Amino acid sequence: MPQAAWTRAVLNLCLLGILDGEGPSYGYALLNRLHAAGLDAVKPATLYPALARLAEEGAVDVRWEAGEQGPGRKYYGLTGEGRRRLAEQRAAWTAFHGTVTRLAGAGETSGAGSGGDRA
After folding, report:
1. Which of 19, 53, 89, 115 is surrounded by the fewest CB atoms within 10 Å?
2. What is the DSSP annotation of 54-71?
3. Pairing, β 25-26 against β 73-78
C-alpha cells in the first residue's frame, strides 16, 4: 500500500511538527496523535527508531520523567536544530506537494489535460 511508504517518508516531518505545535511528548502519546490524524501505518517499531535518529541528529532532546503511577517516561522535545529542520522540511514539502499535485492532475476532470488521445 503506497500510503505506508508515504507515511514512512514524511514521519520525521510529522513528528517535528507535532512537537513544535504541541510541545514535548512521550512515544505512546505521539503514536496516538499520529493515529488520530489518520497515519495508522506507524507502528512502535517504526516510531521509536525515528525518534532515536532525531535525537542523535540533535533535532529533539530526550529527558526522563518519573511516572506518577508506574514507570518513568522518556519525553521528546524540539530543539533549535529541530525548529530549523522543521522550517526547511516544511518548505521542501510544500514545493514537493505542489509538483506531485500538478503532475498527478489533481482537480482536473477525467481526461482533460492528460495528453491522451484526441479526436
Report:
1. 115
2. HHHTTSEEEEEE--TTSS
3. antiparallel
Return the SS3 of 72: coil
Q: Amino acid identity, residue 36?
A: A
Give the torsion through C-alpha atoms of 97, 15, 17, 78, to 10 deg: -140
**What's the one-letter identity of residue 63?**
R
Helix (H, G, I), strand (E, B) or coil at 76: strand
For 11, the grid coordinates are 514521519
92-106: pLDDT as tens digits: 999 999 999 999 986
CA distance 8 to 97: 16
Q: Residue 48 CB: number of other CB atoms within 10 A?
A: 14
